[in-house]
Write a structure and sequence with these properties.
- By secondary structure, the chain is an all-alpha fold.
- It has 13 helices and no strands.
- The radius of gyration is 18 Å and the shape is globular.
- 51% of the residues are buried.
- The mean pLDDT is 84.
Length: 297
């Protein structure tokens, strides 16, 4: 009972709070800055919204995943980045403003794209005869309330009380990490009898998707010819996902803890790859470049 209450009520409320924290890091200046040099932001957004979901379908097909894990992987791939990707970009000496803008754009666009992609995955894996679909309108409304509205509240707080926002942002990020860890523990306990088998299925798929996402981010960024800090920011955005949204969609909207397994596993493994990106960025990007404002090419 307590587990159900936490997932059904606590998770949406927690995600609302987490998204306020993301909004605290957003300013209008971030959007204005990237609007003057939109190439990197467009590349990152296209990667997030089109390339990564395509990779999710590809990995699920190539590895022959079970239907629940395959749909869960697509759910994860269709999710935007989050505040964690912004923090890792900062630590790796990437373009933080670009990371924030791509996260924000993807979070807004995901409200429309995620239901469509997930329904496509459900139809592919379960067939139309199974009559299992994600309610598009209800999902859009939920994501607007849980993602878009709190992000706007966070931005408003940042505009009206910038000192408070800066001081509070780290606390919101820490809260998000605690929520994700709590979800992983709760779902693991609920699926304890079949957890090992699910992890064996989902683990390699999540690691492969993580590697492909980072590689695709670097590849796309280099193809469009942006500066190294921008390349790193885009790679981080495609490699670090908002796993909490994936867990919300799987458990609350679709009512499947099995479909939440990829988001749960990815929520842990992505930090390993994030640490690698930080090491890579700090070894290849001079601190002087960061200090003068992440110049665009």
């Amino acid at each position: 009972m307590a587990q159900s209450v936490f997932i059904d009520i606590g998770l949406p409320v927690s995600l609302f709070i987490i998204m306020i924290g993301m909004g605290l890091g957003l300013t209008v200046k971030d959007f204005v800055k990237e609007a003057h040099h939109p190439r990197a932001a467009i590349a990152g957004s296209v990667g997030q919204l089109l390339v990564l979901p395509a990779l999710g379908f590809l990995v699920a097909w190539a590895l022959g995943l079970s239907p629940a894990i395959a749909v869960g992987l697509v759910i994860l791939a269709a999710c935007p980045g989050g505040a964690t990707s912004n923090v890792i970009t900062y630590l790796a000496r990437g373009n933080v403003a670009l990371s924030i803008v791509v996260t924000a754009v993807a979070s807004i666009a995901t409200i429309m794209t995620l239901p469509l992609l997930v329904n496509q995955a459900l139809s592919w894996q379960l067939g139309r005869s199974a009559n299992v679909t994600m309610p598009v309108v209800d999902t859009i409304v939920m994501l607007v309330v849980i993602v878009l509205l709190p992000t706007g509240i966070g931005m408003l707080i940042r505009a009206k009380a910038p000192i408070f926002a800066v001081r509070s942002e780290k606390k919101f990020n820490a809260f998000g990490a605690v929520v994700l860890l709590s979800l992983i523990v709760i779902i693991s306990y609920g699926l304890r009898d079949q957890l090992l088998g699910l992890l064996i299925q989902a683990g390699p798929a999540c690691i492969l998707l993580n590697i492909l996402g980072i590689g695709a981010g670097l590849g796309i960024a280099r193809i469009v010819g942006v500066a190294k800090p921008d390349q790193l920011a885009i790679a981080v955005e495609l490699g670090i996902k908002n796993s909490t949204i994936g867990i919300l969609v799987a458990t609350t909207i679709l009512g499947s803890q099995e479909m939440a397994i990829p988001s749960m596993v990815y929520g842990l493994t992505m930090y390993v790859f994030g640490a690698g990106l930080v090491a890579f960025g700090r070894s290849t990007i001079s601190a002087k470049i960061v200090s003068v404002g992440n110049v665009h090419s």
